[in-house]
Amino acid sequence: MLRGTWQRVPIDAFPIRHGRRELAWGIGYALFYVVAAVLVGLVIRSHPAPIWGAARFNQDCWYTFVLKIGLLLVVPVVALRLAGYRVEDFLVGWGADRRRILRLPLAYPLGVVVNVGHLPAIRDALASGSAPHPVARIGLGILLPLFTAGLPEEIFFRGFLQTRLEAAAGRLAAITITALLFAAWHVPTRFLLSHGIEGEAGSPISILLGTGLPVFVAGLLIGLAFDRWRNLPTLVAIHWGVDTLPVVASFLLINF
């Protein structure tokens, strides 16, 4: 087998019960999620409800509890449970042997390093005492991305959608379409609300360059990693780590 085509586990090892029906549901739900992002963005713009005064809209109650935890974690997990799926159905190829379990904690700091550029601002905010209850804010900033980024985005987009696309249309189409849909839902809220490194609200070009393109590239890389190694827990840990420092910064009232 050519090195570039190697997979730890082929797609036919995944317990996909109703391939076409599940694929239609997955694509339909991903498109619905883009619309939901538009609606939530409009609600935040008119009725913001930042958690603990967080600086970024990503830590608004509407974004966190409705868009991310509600619609991208709770709804898909409940739907999969009702369809008869179990946790182990999404861990095909991972295997809880000692070596992989020991490697798993290394994945989180690997993700954290991606946004290490936030550390100077975090250090300055802690030194100035500008945010009350800093330890609690840091703790919340560390915990929350697991439930708003790591778990929901990897379970739905990689564990569910990419596998169904691969079974129906092949590996390249699965990676590419999943990355496009993954990037698509990020764009509306940034277009409505973002200021800073993710682009400026109302400017399509800056949002596409600051959010759409980077998220699409990240989606391709994550999709390729899942395609080859089928290691969903590690991707969850890395994704959790990537989002940690920006969320901590937001809770420490740092806008960026």
Observed structural traits:
0% strand; mainly alpha; 9 helices; 256 residues; globular
Report on the architecture of this protein:
The protein has helices at residues 19-46, 61-82, 98-114, 119-128, 134-169, 171-184, 186-193, 204-229, 232-251. By secondary structure, the chain is mostly helical. It has one domain (18-251). Helix 1 (19-46) packs antiparallel against helix 2, helix 1 runs antiparallel to helix 5 (134-169) and helix 1 packs parallel to helix 7. The longest helix is centred in the middle third of the chain and has 36 residues, at 134-169. It is globular, with a radius of gyration of 18 Å.
Helix content: over 70%
Global shape: globular
Give the SSE string: HHHHHHHHH
Provide mean pLDDT, rounded.
95
> How would you classify the helix and strand content by structural class?
mainly alpha
Portion in beta strands? under 5%
